[in-house]
Amino acid sequence: MKKIFLFFTIISMTLISGLYAYSKNTSSEHSKFIGRWAEEISERVVLDIYQNKDSEYSIFITWREDNLAQKDIYRFKAKNDNGILKYNNGIHIYRTFEGKTKYKDKIDYTDGFGEFKLKNNKIIWKDNKDKTESIFIKANKNLCKDTTVSNKYFSIMLPEELKGFYEAKISKDTISIYDKASKIAGFGGFAFAIRIYKNPSDHAVLPGSKKLGELTDKNNILYDVVLKHPTDVQYDYTKDSKASDRYALMYEFGDIVSIKGKNKSQYHKNQGTKGKDLYRQILQKHLKAVNEHWDSSKLEKENMSYMYNVMSEMHKNVADKIGYTYYDINDDGIDELIIGEIAEGNWKGVIYDIYTMVNRKPKHVVSGGERDRYYVCNDVFVCNEYSSGAFESGVRVYILVENSVELYPQVSFKYDGYENKKNPWFLSYGHDDDKWENVSEQIYEERIKNFEKYNRFDYIPLSNVK
């Protein structure tokens, strides 16, 4: 299910990834930043750089020595700007130790600004807040051992800052990370896990799971690489305001962790998750349908909305009036393909067809029409507005089941003057659409308001499809 976005402490917020356009050409170049670096002269200072979902980076700087009474800790969320990683939200922390695992953090500032440049296989860090400049070289293997966790198929590396504060549980297909202090305190301490699955159906309906990419082992067997966060019955810091900032850091780190294949396995980040790589043939088929003005019967046969035929009779260049977008409706890490009319007002964001991935293949979910319209609402639900006449209309609310074309009903709203002219407001829950509860207008309006925030997508015209 879609995770609820919560507001964390200012420290953990540095890890929340933004939404920025992905560029395949620049991704390869900018991936040179990713990894562990050490200060050039003494190697006492460690720089860890992780790439977020797209072109944003999470960066950590800390001192390596274990016997220091105080360390300077830096955290940044940087964006690429023509090959330079720039930040304006840098956090500087003074960490004072009271033992090997006990410490106090004092935030010096949260508005640091500067940049990281890559030149001659070295990173030049210029911090304009502290007015300092440092040079980092690629860290050797010995500097990576302490925070690298491996199993049979892959390895992950946590930032130097977390050394000594986490515990790893390892099996041949899973690496689970726990916060030691939270575990000792009786909260479980589970922060995140990375696991591989041969079959998508094995992980699709597991709560708190999200696909990160794919891995191919030495025998060319394909696996989904999946991030797992705590469920409600496990310890989840979002449920407890007393949880430490370190646990929050660990929890969010699962979304950006760097993964590497082992024993001849190859890991491919984002493979099998991005709409632009998954639905090319579907889009080409839709473009063909509108350009050739397929009639309603042929569209229906091909599981496509009859509205393309209706619109072709209204518009000369209908491929400019129908568009598409990619959006992960059920938050499983895999984009859905949404196709609809390019419109404004109440029609903006209307959906005529939805496609999803089932066992790594694109499948059709549902088609909509003029009096049977679909929208994504509240970022997580599929809402179906329908009208059966002057005195009957309603909204059905669904969730899209992971690795399935099933729309699972949540709640339905109906205005039915045929059924009850004096009190025409009805609610229904779950699967049984035959059991309607007659309610007051006030209750009806209060409940339906929770599902009125529609996602108004800016569709890309089908005419742009190549």
Please explain how this structure is put together.
- There is one protein chain.
- The chain is built from 8 helices and 28 strands.
- An 8-stranded antiparallel β-barrel has the order 1-2-3-4-5-6-7-8. A 6-stranded antiparallel β-sheet has the order 11-12-13-15-14-17. Strands 22-23-24-25-26-27 form a 6-stranded antiparallel β-sheet, covered by helices on one side.
- It has 3 domains: 1-140, no CATH class; 144-271; 276-464, no CATH class.
- With 466 residues, it is mainly beta.
- It starts with 23 loop residues before the first helix and ends in a 5-residue tail after the last strand.
- The chain is elongated.
- Mean pLDDT is 88; it is low at 1-28.
Give descriptors for this structure:
3 domains, 466 residues, six-stranded antiparallel beta sheet, eight-stranded antiparallel barrel, 41% strand, mainly beta
The total count of strands amounts to: 28
Query: Pairing-aware structural class of the strands and helices?
Result: mainly beta
Radius of gyration: 26 Å
Helical content, roughly?
A: 10-25%
Tell me the strand order in the biggest sheet. Answer: 1-2-3-4-5-6-7-8
Summed up, the helix count is 8
The shape, in one word, is elongated
Mean pLDDT: 88
Distance between the termini: 33 Å
Strand percentage: 35-45%
| Major sheet summary line | 8 strands, antiparallel, barrel
Please, how many domains?
A: 3
Q: Any low-confidence stretches, pLDDT <50, length ≥5? A: 1-28
